[in-house]
Protein: SAM-dependent chlorinase/fluorinase
Organism: Actinopolyspora mzabensis
Amino acid sequence: MSDQPRHPWISFTTDYGTADGFVAACRGVLARHAPGVSVLDISHHIPPQAITAASAVLTQTVPYLPTAVHLVVIDPGVGTTRRGIALETSSGSLLVGPDNGVLLAPAERLGGITTAVELAEPDWWLPEVSATFHGRDIFAPVAAAAALGADIRAAGPALTPAQLVPAPTAHSSRHGRNVRAQVITIDHFGNLQLALPAAQAPWHHGEPLLITTPTGRFTARFGRTFGDVAEGDCLVLADSAGHLAVAVNTASAAARLETTRDQILDITPAERDT
């Protein structure tokens, strides 16, 4: 393969955190196998095993990155019969990671899958493979090879999109002016991103709302930005990714509502609470 990188960028997303050496070990493999390629970290603080959250973060981020190989290690099935896969998209970007659904939505955002393969060829891996660290021993060397221009079709047998494991489905529904939606991500500020496009919001600007969670009921308003309500007050708004979100001006909605990822919220017009 050529020493000139086909893709000068590899993006890197994991649930490893940064307290241990896992991220550094993977980045070391990338640096040794593809020294001319730069690594752009999307996040290493995805909640552990959170496939839905990781998929959302990637889908909302990859459109703003250069054409790249996207290395994704959210892998609760590491060491089991789950497949490792590489996907090429019509945009020219590739994704490398486990076949557990985490790559599918970002692949669609990148134009759709044109090639999919199972990572079954050991020559693409490190010589010794740990049963619990495929991010270092399989996915990182494959991503490095792909960045340098290796044809991923040589990495293993071809797969059809229908053979890939589907992503977990986040719950959302709308009945009239009532919304029920799952929390898919909680950002650093404690904002709750919901599994419903903001375009489907059935309320008008400034309308008072009632949010019902597993822990209680909270008043809010439908707004455009945080400053539409007083400091410490709750609002529902469209976030920067076009999802409905729940926020508290200058505070954490996750803390205020005592809400965690994957919980279901009901949002209704406040005047209907009788």
About this structure: The chain has a mean pLDDT of 94. The radius of gyration is 21 Å. The chain has two domains: 9-163, 172-272.
